[in-house]
Amino acid sequence: MELDIVELSRFQFAMTALYHFLFVPLTLGLSILVAIMETVYVMTNRPIWRQMTKFWGSLFGINFVLGVATGITMEFQFGMNWSYYSHYVGDVFGAPLAMEGMMAFFLEATFVGLFFFGWDKLSKLQHMVVAWLVAIGSNFSALWILIANGWMVNPVGAEFNPQTMRMEMTSFFDVVFNEVAQAKFVHTVSAGYVTAAIFVLGVSSWYMLKGRHLELARRSIAVAASFGLAASLSVVVLGDESGYSASHTQKMKLAAIEAMWETHHAPAPFTLVGIPDQEARETHYAIEIPWAMGLIGTRSLTKEIPGINDLVAEAEQRVRRGITAYDALMEIREDPANASAEARFVFEQNSDDLGYALLLKRYVDDPREATEAQIEMAANDTVPGVFPLFWSFRAMVGLGFSFILLTGYFFWMSSFKGAQYPRWALRLAVLWIPAPWIAAELGWFVAEYGRQPWTVDGMLPTALSVSHLGVTDLLITIAGFVMFYTVLFIVEMSLMVKYIRKGPVQDVAETDEWMDRHQARLSGMTRAPFSPNPAE
Questions:
Q1: I want to staple 386 with a disulfide (CB 3.0 to 4.6 A). Which of 180, 214, 233, 276 is the partner?
Q2: What region, left, alpha or beta, does residue 211 occupy, with left being phi > 0 and alpha being psi -120 to 50 degrees?
């Protein structure tokens, strides 16, 4: 097996996936915030809310277009770099991707056009409905992608067919309502809502510091702070749900995140900080919180969380059973029509462990010829990199709690202190704009790196999933993606900065006149009746 090809393919997909996810969370969150703002406009008929809707909607549009462009290239990579994976799981993995295209992408793309070009064609109520359909389409798109991704973690509703050597779907219902997929979906969209809230909060704070667009900024801060606080709290709660799901679907990943080398007596402690040493299989200078991991991972005080060493020993047994399954599979494949009932029975009894035998393909062409040392190495391969997982998770969690504090503070100031924000808080909000993206990228790193060495957990090793490409082919495509995505990043940042600096230029005259009239009414002054047409 050419490991360089595998690593280059992994690097390329990781690079494009992480880059694509720069756009996804802001699209998810801004679509909801824009719909909320337009709903307030329809309910109050105040032009300032229409102005807010158009301004934040324009930033949503820039982000949406570039997110679509980068997302399409990711799907092409399944055929380019991961052709065996596509062959192996295409019957299952292709279904949610097709649903994403039919139900979500077309819905989203159609109503995005109506949102931007329908202001003078639709009534206020109709346009508000369009805004919500854009938001629903955006979130539906995430749902189907995460159903596909969740199946890779917990491959339910499908079984391996020895005749076709492929996974085949047995229950679409089980695939859709996979517990891992549902937990991933709610956690991911909540993270997107936090990203948009911090973005709106930071940009609005910049306006406040510059003394520009103050009415828009104050109202945007109020909306973003309340929405962001609710979303930040949801991320913590729903992240806990993902941890509980991992305790019985991804035990090795959970143990690696906690650098839990040995199985603790229940309830297990949570390692707050430490320095994991994968060679020595111990964590130096560990500071632990008693009972916390047991409560998070098992929701009880009596259930154990298995440690890495015990899970490696279990993996070694599964490799041995996988070899038995592989031997029976080869007998069935030699003469499918006349394969013995005993071979079929042996395969059925051990088929769940076939993927563990395939881990041996890294060391030997035929797993049945593996030595004891190779079996041990294959079992040890089931342990992902502990140090990067351990600290990536803690950095993500730390940032998550910072979002609660930041949005909570601005919510308090907006609701109970007359929206009078100190300059240090406004500066902090501006500086904190990149933080949600960092947290989101760390989250995806933990999710995907923590699944290694599997593409489909327990079934298909990553090393077997790649296409038969040369190193030169991969280096050329990686260079092409780097150049193309660099250009797109410059375009994205230039457009976003340009429109943020420009500010809300739409409906300014109408909004200003309405605000003057509103302030005059509050001060008891009398003015001429308001007209949206300055010529009247």
A1: 276
A2: left
Q: Are the C-beta atoms of residues 310 and 273 closer than 8 Å to each other?
A: no
In this structure, what token pair is assigned to residue 397?
A: 């969690």
Q: What is the pLDDT of residues 59-96, one digit of tens each?
A: 999 998 888 778 777 777 888 889 899 889 988 988 88
Q: Are 351 and 325 in contact (CB under 8 A)?
A: yes
Give DSSP secondary structure letters for 393-442: HHHHHHHHHHHHHHHHHHHHHHHHSTT---HHHHHHHHHTTTHHHHHHHH
**Same structural domain for residues 6 and 86?**
yes
Last residue within a domain, chosen from 352, 381, 410: 381
Burial class (CB in 10 A: 0-12, 13-18, 19+), 161: exposed
Q: How many domains does the chain have?
A: 3
Which tokens is 120 given? 């003078």
Collect all residues with Cβ–Cβ distance below 8 Å to 416 and sequence separation of at least 6. none
Is 129 or 522 the better-scoring residue by pLDDT? 129
The distance between the two most distant Cα atoms of the chain, rounded to a whole number of Å, is 97
Domain contains 366: yes
Q: Fill in the amino acid letter for 4.
A: D
Same domain, 143 and 187: yes
Domain that holds residue 337: 316-381
pLDDT tens per residue across span 398-453: 999 999 999 999 999 999 988 899 999 999 999 999 999 999 999 999 999 999 99
User: What angle do helix axes 372-380 and 308-334 make, rounded to 10 degrees?
Assistant: 120
Model confidence over 333-389: pLDDT tens digits?
888 777 788 888 999 999 999 999 999 999 999 999 999 999 999 999 999 999 999
Establish if 436 belongs to a structural domain.
yes
Identify whether residues 12 and 152 lie together within a single domain: yes
Q: Could you tell me if 152 and 41 are in contact, meaning their C-beta atoms sit under 8 angstroms apart?
A: no
Q: Which long-range contacts (CB under 8 A, 24 or more apart) does 506-510 make?
A: 506/51, 506/54, 506/55, 507/47, 507/50, 507/51, 507/54, 508/51, 509/534, 510/47
Contacting residues for 274 by C-beta, under 8 A, at least 6 apart: 259, 283, 284, 285, 286, 287, 390
Burial class (CB in 10 A: 0-12, 13-18, 19+), 121: exposed
For residues 435 and 522, membership in a common domain is answered with no
Q: Are 476 and 371 in contact (CB under 8 A)?
A: no
Q: What is the DSSP letter of 282?
A: E
What's the Rg (C-alpha) of the chain?
A: 27
Q: Under DSSP, is residue 169 helix (H, G, I), strand (E, B) or coil? A: strand
37: its two tokens = 């703002």
